[in-house]
Amino acid sequence: xxxxxHWARVPGQKCPTPPGQECLGKSAPLDLGNMSPVMSxxxxxxxxxxxxxxxxxxxxxxxxxxxxxxxxxxxxDAFTDAVAHSVTHAVSY
Length: 93
What we know:
Elements: E1 2-6, E2 27-31, E3 40-42, H1 48-92
Parallel strand pairs: 1-3
Antiparallel strand pairs: 1-2
């Protein structure tokens, strides 16, 4: 997922990009890897908790989905291998 994180206007605070500038509503790229859907996040001070929760939820959901898929595939593969092994032995005897 590739998202834009819009920083709040905070006097005296420096933005991550470009270096040395104060935050004046400029946006800095936030790359969260290859997740989807693509999100555009707004970051005013009043909704920091909401945005943090949304980001955390999106990341957690993506990780959970991937792990669930990997585990399901592993179980399916193990079961398929076990059945194939049993059938092979049954036929050979």
